[in-house]
Amino acid sequence: MISSEVDLCRMVKAGNLFHGFTLHEEVGISGVSCDMVYENGTEVYTVEAKMSLNFKVLEQACRWRSVVSSSIVAVPLSALKGWDNNGKKNIVSDLGLGLIIADDNIPARFCYDFDPFAERNNEWNYHCQVYKFPADLEFWKSCFSRIGENECPAGSKVGKRSTTFSRTIDALKIEAEKNPDYNLKQLLVNVPTHYSNVTSAYNCIKKYSECGIIKPFWKK
Predict the structure, then answer these.
(1) CA 202/CA 209 separation, integer angstroms
(2) For the segment 72-84, what is each residue's pLDDT rounded down to a tens digit?
């Protein structure tokens, strides 16, 4: 019985949907985490496993779209109640997300046309496309390298000083190396952070740079 996100993740893994991929679980990324990340050295797919399908879940999944091949949501079959009647299908497809459904009696599988691995042709319904992009492999290598590090509160002098803020800055520096002409706001638009929005992130990081806490690594 699928009664928790742990059960749901177990069903997704049992479905063997990502042939030849390595699974990383609970990957910390700029102060937040992703439930499941599958990578094979060329492509990267994130999977957010949630017990319901709502706007908060969709927002979480959209967070990774700029740095993955495709972003995917996994939900139990019960979460799709009223699927065609309340517009959830159109919303998910318009966002270009993949969708996995799991049930107690059958293996997890991709839902309808929301399969990033499916072969497409010019006849298929464009409303059901899954957006695919080149994955940011350097970004993910940095994330995977931090798995297992001790999490420390800001200002801590113990452990490896892995904090939500330090992970955000590291991710921004990677983006800045790839785009040396980007200013701070442009970097923040492209990189998921632990801040609630770009404006909040910009004001905070700008303040720290003006105080000399961090040295600017972006174009002014």
Answers:
(1) 10
(2) 999 998 888 776 6
Vertex 47: Cα angle to 81 and 186 (nearest 5): 115
The full set of domains in the chain, from first to last, is 5-128 (3.40.1350.60), 149-210 (no CATH)
Question: What gap in Å lies between CA 199 and CA 178, rounded to an integer?
Answer: 22
The per-residue pLDDT for range 196-210, each reduced to its tens digit, is 678 888 888 888 888
CB 100 within 8 A of CB 11: no
85 to 8, 88, 99, 151, 203: CA distances (angstroms): 24, 8, 17, 44, 41
8 touches 75 (CB < 8 A)? yes
Specify the pTM: 0.65
pLDDT of residue 112: 66
CA distances from 213 to 166, 169, 180 (A): 12, 12, 21
Query: Alpha carbon 93 to chain centroid distance?
Result: 17
DSSP H helical ranges for the chain:
5-14, 55-62, 88-94, 137-145, 164-178, 184-190, 198-210
